[in-house]
Design a protein that fits this description.
Blueprint (H helix, E strand, L loop, with lengths): L1 H17 L13 H9 L7 H15 L5 H17 L5 H15 L8 H18 L5 H17 L6 E2 L3 E2 L2 H14 L5 H15 L11 H14 L5 H12 L14 H22 L4 H17 L2
Antiparallel strand pairs: 1-2
Length: 302
């Protein structure tokens, strides 16, 4: 156990070097103990100027920090709490959107910056959904960035006991969920979201999802379907494509390679969790649209 811990801290030290030795986290004027006290107080910071300055500093210096308590428990939780409370002005949120969108496409040697940019953008998209502040162009830009990010995820690491979460696919799905819920986005936008979700349900290679990725990917699908912009025939076709063994001649071939087994595992996990979500939703219209295709997909899978 000590060896594992030592190796973990060595990895964090290396990640700090790769990320420019983020010595500014905690930001100037704060230490970790003060941030922990702020967290214990539900991130209530009455001074608006101090809150805005700290929010910018957390985005700039802490949101990609290799230390999970600073990155996840303090930086992200603070930003999410303030956004959900309406405590950050729209102009600041838009500036954060631009910075975090840029970060989605930037190099990320340690693997933390891009997933936590996506997760933070999900909170910004949530604010815009509930109280719109983005114009159509900015919203379209956010959709393009979200789709490109999710399509490009190749780092499938989830949880590490020392370094915490990366969870790139799931965080990208959270951003797609908030966009799918937004009534300002039309069917063409939902089509983009559904297309990119399909690329990550069973990604190429030998990775088996074990950290709830299938559930997170299913959520934007459920809420896109709730919008009622696609009929049952569309959903049956979409689900049939997911359940197809192609390019394998049959699902029997999946049992002969690790990549085939991973694909079978990940596809089944997604279809099963989506079936349960729809079946237990209590939404009759949703069930009528999706259940016929889901039943056929379950039958088609081994």
């Amino acid at each position: 156990m000590r060896m594992n811990k030592a190796a973990g801290w060595i990895a964090i030290a290396l990640a700090l070097q790769l990320s420019g030795a983020r010595a500014a986290c905690p930001p100037a004027g704060w230490d970790e103990a003060a941030l922990e006290r702020l967290r214990a107080e539900k991130f209530v910071l009455p001074d608006g100027a101090a809150r805005a300055a700290l929010a910018d500093a957390l985005v700039a210096d802490c949101l990609a920090d290799p230390r999970p308590q600073l990155r996840d428990e303090l930086a992200f939780e603070a930003l999410a709490a303030w956004m959900r409370a309406g405590a950050l002005p729209a102009a600041q949120l838009d500036a954060m959107r631009r910075e975090l969108t840029r970060r989605l496409a930037a190099d990320d040697p340690s693997g933390f910056a891009r997933p936590f940019a996506a997760l933070s953008l999900a909170e910004i998209a949530r604010v815009d959904r509930l109280k719109p502040f983005l114009d159509a162009g900015a919203r379209a830009e956010l959709l393009r960035a979200a789709v490109a990010y999710e399509r490009g995820v190749r780092d499938y690491r989830g949880f590490d006991p020392v370094q915490g979460w990366r969870h790139g696919v799931a965080h990208g799905a959270d951003l797609l969920l908030q966009l799918a819920l937004n009534p300002a986005l039309d069917r063409a936008a939902l089509d983009q979201i559904l297309d990119v979700v399909a690329t990550q349900i069973a990604p190429p290679g030998e990775h088996f999802y074990i950290y709830g990725e299938s559930e997170r990917l299913a959520r934007p699908v459920v809420y896109a379907a709730r919008r009622g912009l696609h009929d049952a025939a569309f959903w049956s076709s979409w689900l049939a494509a997911l359940a197809s063994p192609a390019p394998l001649p049959s699902w029997d071939e999946a049992f002969k390679t690790r990549a085939g087994l991973a694909r079978k595992h990940n596809t089944q996990a997604f279809v099963q969790v989506l079936y349960v979500m729809v079946r237990e939703s209590g939404d009759v219209a949703l069930q009528q649209r999706l259940l016929p295709g889901l039943v056929e997909a379950l039958k088609a899978l081994p």
